[in-house]
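Example record

One chain of 492 residues, shown exactly as stored in the release files.
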Amino acid sequence: MRSDPWKLVKAGRRPAKVLQSWNKVNLYNLKHASIPHTSSKTFFQQKWIAKSLARTYHGEQVRESQWEKMFSRRLRSVVPMDANYLARNDGSFESAGRGSGLEGVGPRRAPLTPHMQMTFAPLERRLDVAIFRAMFASSTRQARQFVIHGSVTVNGKKMRYPGYLLNPGDLFQVDPERVMFATGAPKDPQQRRRGRKRRNRTPVEAARDETANAAAETSGPIEGAERPAENAEEAEKPIEKAEQKELSPDEARNTLTRLLSQAKEFMNNKDVSAPAQRLNLNNFRKGVRQALSSAFSSTDVVEDLEAQFLQLKALADISPSKSKPTTEPSTSSQASTTTTTSSTSSANLPESVLPTPPPHEKSSAKPTSSPSTPQDPVLAAALKQAIENPTAPLDESTHPQISEEDLTVLRQALYQLHENPIDSLKPYATPWRPRDYMSAFAFIPRYLEVNQNICAAVYLRHPVARPGRSEVPSPYPDSVNGAAFVWYLRRR
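Predicted structure tokens for this chain:
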């Protein structure tokens, strides 16, 4: 950033800058911001101070000369009309010239229209500002970086100009990985260190440590610390077999073609109703096509695609929609027993794979066990086995020692682990969670229609002012924006 956000208000110094950013320091500055006293200032000084404050927030990344060309003295506003009155009358009474306004006057006055809040409305058309308003980036500077690096498309075409002015009806889309990085919580030092180690490993070391890391993450301190040497020896055996067997280009191509046809038949014959599952299958087919189009497909790529397809098939069989019980408890005692059993079994699983409860259950549901309760070794072993062998059925026939309630929680945990996996190579913290202090900036203007599932938004129309409301968010009142409008008005 160009300015240091840690410059807070001090005695005799200028006030802190309020920027278009989700930074926690910017939130502190926004809470403690105050309008300077300008009663003793000249008119020129009042306009200068107002212009400086407003331009710090609106278009801080835009040059002053560029903004002066964008400035328009025509402020867009609309007057809402009563649909019932327009339907009952044809306007003949008003056109007769007998006067109006005395009859039918309501008890309260209509609120004023904040026209001065529309001073910086032309900046809302910029692509980087629209991305920030749609909550796809944590600041306009970051949105500008996304555009320049080629992560944004407008109407299906890649757009690398952050100053592109959107027209009504334009659709812009941001790479979902960039959005998850911008809106997700940052990684802690331990996660960054783990990610650096994974990136710096050789392929042989990565394959050797993959099984050991999976066992350590799923089994916890009970099983992970008992036999580290055996896990390493077991991990070396499949590596030696994989090094001995190499697929020829024809065999790899035949295997990829078979996987592509199986995925197509699976989508056509299988009842895959969940959008996430269909999206994963489409992404898998796209990856297989890319591997087929490449000149050389290694054995590791083919084996990874085969394992991925088996995992997708297994997750389609154990999705939460198919694992719900057909009968519901008829009495309140049975319902309370089921809730207690499921919460107790949830406490025995690792926290990173537990399913996320609904919003209305977060405040009411309380764990029945203390935080220091050790993990259930039976559930931990079942979870490890399900992750290592996703094709095996997860029911009472394979796990007779686990109750039906525990199996339901285990299925939901596996589904949650697949939807929001743990990956140290990601630039954000995993499992993904929203960043801190995000709720204070969680609003979307009316002139944008946003779809968070695909990270896309439509610029519906230009922002307008209505009685008592302005569609251009601003932390400053009408007095500041009005003085800034007069400043730029005289310079046109």
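Notes: The chain is about 50% helix and 5% strand.
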